[in-house]
């Protein structure tokens, strides 16, 4: 499944201008694609909380220009190069997937905000069985991967320290550093798979998080309100420790 998605993503943005009669058709096709890319960037800006991003503004202006009835073929060729230049082909595939990943990004933000270790979800997945266990286990592994790669990206977006083009290029570069030749289309493919499992992942995380909060409350009550009693047992060199938390202090 990942290989199939990666192959489609690798072909998502590879404009090569033809020559001759086909150029008119090519320009019309690329003009439509430019408008689609501008819409994806607008959606991604909302997902990342960067509505005034300079790259998005430029893309919107390009999309408006190609719709101008007076735009020449030369102008459209120039706009295609201008639009594609800031981000590599793999980056455009990543933009396409992230633009649809609002619920997935919201889940990652929740995990980061709560300060939980996303790897703990591996233990909670045992509550599932059969095929559901296998699918959810795979999705959790992908979620852990995305948490590693997207955490710096979401932090930079929240701080407003980088534009979308820089954030996407950084993601692609880090994926290549981590996975080498296997990085081609990898993150975009993982995002696509994870997006289909967000409801199950969110239920699993909230259940695990609530259990963790209950454990923290028990430990806090024991430390602050508990009455510890030490007693010597009948056996030699044995001490019995009991803990009681008064009902009104729980």
Protein model, in words:
With 250 residues, this protein is mainly α. Helices cover 69% and strands 5% of the residues. The protein contains eleven helices and two strands. The protein has helices at 2-10, 22-48, 54-66, 73-84, 89-98, 102-114, 121-124, 130-159, 164-179, 186-195, 198-225, and strands spanning 227-232, 239-244. It has a two-stranded antiparallel sheet with strand order 1-2. Helix 1 crosses helix 10. The longest helix is centred in the middle third of the chain and has 30 residues, at 130-159. It is elongated, with a radius of gyration of 26 Å. Mean pLDDT is 75; it is low at 1-15.
Keywords:
two-stranded antiparallel ribbon, 69% helix, 11 helices, elongated, 250 residues, mainly alpha, 5% strand, single chain
Protein topology:
Layout: H1 2-10, H2 22-48, H3 54-66, H4 73-84, H5 89-98, H6 102-114, H7 121-124, H8 130-159, H9 164-179, H10 186-195, H11 198-225, E1 227-232, E2 239-244
Antiparallel strand pairs: 1-2
């Amino acid at each position: 499944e990942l290989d199939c998605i990666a192959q489609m993503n690798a072909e998502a943005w590879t404009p090569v201008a033809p020559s001759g009669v086909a150029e008119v058709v090519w320009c019309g096709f690329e003009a439509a694609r430019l408008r689609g890319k501008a819409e994806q960037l607008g959606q991604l800006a909302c997902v990342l909380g960067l509505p005034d991003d300079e790259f998005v503004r430029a893309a919107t202006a390009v999309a408006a220009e190609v719709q101008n009835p007076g735009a020449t073929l030369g102008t459209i060729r120039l706009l295609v190069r201008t639009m594609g230049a800031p981000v590599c082909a793999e980056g455009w595939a990543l933009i396409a997937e992230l633009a649809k990943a609002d619920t997935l990004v919201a889940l990652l933000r929740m995990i980061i905000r709560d300060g939980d270790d996303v790897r703990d979800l591996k233990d909670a997945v045992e509550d599932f069985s059969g095929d559901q266990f296998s699918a959810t286990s795979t999705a959790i592994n992908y979620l852990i991967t995305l948490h590693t790669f997207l955490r710096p990206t979401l932090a930079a977006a929240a701080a407003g320290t980088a534009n979308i083009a820089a954030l996407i290029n950084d993601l692609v570069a880090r994926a290549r550093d981590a996975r080498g030749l296997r990085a081609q289309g990898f993150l975009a493919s993982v995002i696509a798979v994870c997006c289909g499992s967000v409801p199950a992942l969110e239920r699993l995380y909230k259940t695990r998080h609530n259990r963790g909060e209950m454990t923290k409350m028990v430990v806090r009550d024991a430390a602050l309100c508990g009455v510890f009693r030490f007693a010597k047992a009948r056996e030699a060199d044995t001490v019995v420790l009991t803990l009681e938390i008064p009902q009104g202090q729980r």
